From TrEMBL:
<dbReference type="InterPro" id="IPR002893">
    <property type="entry name" value="Znf_MYND"/>
</dbReference>
<dbReference type="InterPro" id="IPR001214">
    <property type="entry name" value="SET_dom"/>
</dbReference>
<feature type="domain" description="SET">
    <location>
        <begin position="2"/>
        <end position="248"/>
    </location>
</feature>
<dbReference type="InterPro" id="IPR050869">
    <property type="entry name" value="H3K4_H4K5_MeTrfase"/>
</dbReference>
<dbReference type="Pfam" id="PF01753">
    <property type="entry name" value="zf-MYND"/>
</dbReference>
<dbReference type="InterPro" id="IPR044418">
    <property type="entry name" value="SMYD1_SET"/>
</dbReference>
<feature type="domain" description="MYND-type">
    <location>
        <begin position="47"/>
        <end position="85"/>
    </location>
</feature>
<dbReference type="InterPro" id="IPR011990">
    <property type="entry name" value="TPR-like_helical_dom_sf"/>
</dbReference>
<keyword id="KW-0863">Zinc-finger</keyword>
<keyword id="KW-0949">S-adenosyl-L-methionine</keyword>
<keyword id="KW-0862">Zinc</keyword>
<dbReference type="InterPro" id="IPR046341">
    <property type="entry name" value="SET_dom_sf"/>
</dbReference>
<keyword id="KW-0479">Metal-binding</keyword>
<keyword id="KW-0489">Methyltransferase</keyword>
<dbReference type="Pfam" id="PF00856">
    <property type="entry name" value="SET"/>
</dbReference>
<keyword id="KW-0808">Transferase</keyword>
<protein>
    <recommendedName>
        <fullName>[histone H3]-lysine(4) N-trimethyltransferase</fullName>
        <ecNumber>2.1.1.354</ecNumber>
    </recommendedName>
</protein>
Length: 486
């Protein structure tokens, strides 16, 4: 950890600063999880060692609970799973993810002691738990968790005091980092990364953090399951500068971001963007040209949008996609008369609509929506924001599928430039994107040389095989980086 230094500032608590100059895309540090677990609902679908999603997983023959990609992942995970395995077997079932994570942490402390581990700037003991900030509801949940923990914890393992177990549960509650599958499409688990916990929040940060599941093509087991997070610089960072990441999605007005941060992480954001309300006007933009809508009308349409988004969420989680499309189209028609192109309520509808329409193969309408969405995003997000990169990629693929090769290829190139910074060249998503970029470039060249031939080829390709279906919309990775119960 030569690239960073721990510091503590008056009134701000601890933080990390750079000790060396960094440039966009530099990995400032990589960190393996101190402990990590798969979410309850996915324990049979995601590898318990590398957190990749797979169709076919090996099951642990002992507890029948843990699942792995292959023998390499199983072998790699055994030291961590051994105690869990017998505890699960004994109880006949596994407890919830919070309890499993607390147990993983405490077994590691039992094995290695509670001090600093190699490459760590802080120990688990020194992480914040915020238990003193808990409200009545949270305290009640903590007591329930404590009880199930004690029920699960085997008598032959090292015994810890109630206060210490509460500390660990509190740490998980506010520092648990959300892990995603290898495509970055779904949140699949939660882990603790002590160094990352030291990076403070800024709504317009100079770093971003990405989860990398490791490279399965690598034969050596060391690389095979090297799941880790990487802290990557988004631009030039000078020595002595504080390193920051955003704990929440930027696409909320300052007041809403501050509320979310206060509720989830117990601090008041004083970053420049919040203080000056930078971009708030764009996020709440109203339609220009013609008569300016009254404040009352704007308020009404925003409330209507919020209500509709709730209905959409429900329909989407039930998989009733035609209902989602209907709700979105209705909402959009009303919004278009009043809201501006960068208004976040309009953009949220466009994002959902384009995703669901692609899935339903209404590819041309999907392309149109995705174009408007990324045009708005470009004006709001930091140019190297990971969410922007992913949105550009999605929009690029949609255009490509729709046969809009020029726009599609351009979007894929832009997405690639962003992902090289936020994800790095070896991330599976970047590799996929690179392959698509090369393929679409070839098709673009064919299109430019002979448009007729291009369409002929496309027609043939469409006849031979149904065009690649977009993945079914899932609950996206939560835009908050630390996974706190809402
Ligand atoms: Zn695996
Ligand atoms: Zn087992
Ligand atoms: Zn802020």
């Amino acid at each position: 950890m030569e690239t960073v230094e721990l510091f503590s500032a008056e009134g701000k608590g601890r933080g990390l600063k750079a000790t060396k100059e960094q440039w966009a895309g530099d990995v400032i540090f990589a960190e393996r999880a101190y402990a990590a677990v798969v979410f309850d609902s996915l324990t049979h679908l995601v590898c318990h060692t590398c957190f990749k999603r797979h169709e076919k997983l090996h099951r642990c023959g002992q507890c029948k609970f843990a699942h792995y990609c292959d023998r390499t992942c199983q072998k790699e995970g055994w030291a961590k799973h051994k105690s869990e395995c017998s505890a699960v077997k004994k109880q006949g079932k596994a407890p919830n993810e919070n309890i499993r994570l607390a147990a993983q942490i405490l077994w590691r402390i039992e094995r290695e002691g509670g001090g600093l581990t190699e490459g760590s700037l802080v120990s688990i003991d020194e992480l914040q738990n915020h238990v003193e900030h808990f409200g009545d509801e949270e305290k009640k949940e903590l007591r329930v968790d404590l009880e199930s923990f004690l029920e699960f914890w085997p008598p032959n393992s090292k015994q810890f005091g109630m206060q210490y177990i509460s500390h660990i549960l509190g740490v998980i509650n506010c520092n648990g980092f959300t892990l995603s599958d290898q495509r970055g499409l779904q949140a699949v688990g939660v882990g603790i990364f002590p160094n990352l916990c030291m990076v403070n929040h800024d709504c317009w940060p100079n770093c971003s953090v990405i989860f990398n599941n490791g490279n399965h093509e690598a034969v050596r087991s060391l690389f095979h399951t090297q799941m880790r997070i990487e802290l990557r610089a988004l631009g030039k960072i000078s020595p002595g500068e504080e390193l920051t990441v955003s704990y929440v999605d930027f696409l909320n007005v300052g007041e809403d971001r501050r509320q979310q941060l206060k509720k989830q992480y117990y601090f008041d954001c004083t970053c420049q963007h919040c203080q000056k309300g930078i971009k708030d006007d764009l996020m709440l933009a109203v339609k220009e040209g013609g008569e300016k809508p009254s404040q009352e009308t704007v308020k009404e349409i925003i409330q209507y949008s919020k209500d509709t988004l709730e209905k959409i969420d429900k329909a989407r989680s039930e998989g009733v996609y035609h209902e989602v499309v209907k709700l979105c189209r209705e909402c959009l028609a009303k919004q278009e008369a009043i809201l501006g192109d960068t208004n976040i309520y309009l953009l949220r509808i466009l994002s959902i609509l384009s995703e669901v329409l692609s899935y339903l193969q209404h590819i041309n309408e999907a392309a149109g929506c995705s174009k408007r969405m990324v045009d708005g995003y470009v004006k709001l997000y930091h140019p190297n924001n990971a969410q922007l990169g992913m949105a550009l990629m999605r929009a690029g693929v949609t255009h490509w599928h729709a046969g809009l090769i020029e726009v599609g290829h351009e979007m894929l190139c832009k997405a690639y430039a962003v992902l090289l910074v936020t994800h790095g060249p070896s991330h599976p998503i970047t590799k996929d994107l690179e392959a698509m970029r090369v393929q679409s470039e070839m098709e673009l060249r064919m299109f430019q040389q002979n448009e007729f031939m291009y369409y002929k080829m496309r027609e043939a390709a469409l006849q031979n095989q149904k065009i690649q279906v977009m993945p079914e919309p899932t609950n996206e990775v939560s835009p908050g980086i630390f996974q706190k119960k809402q």
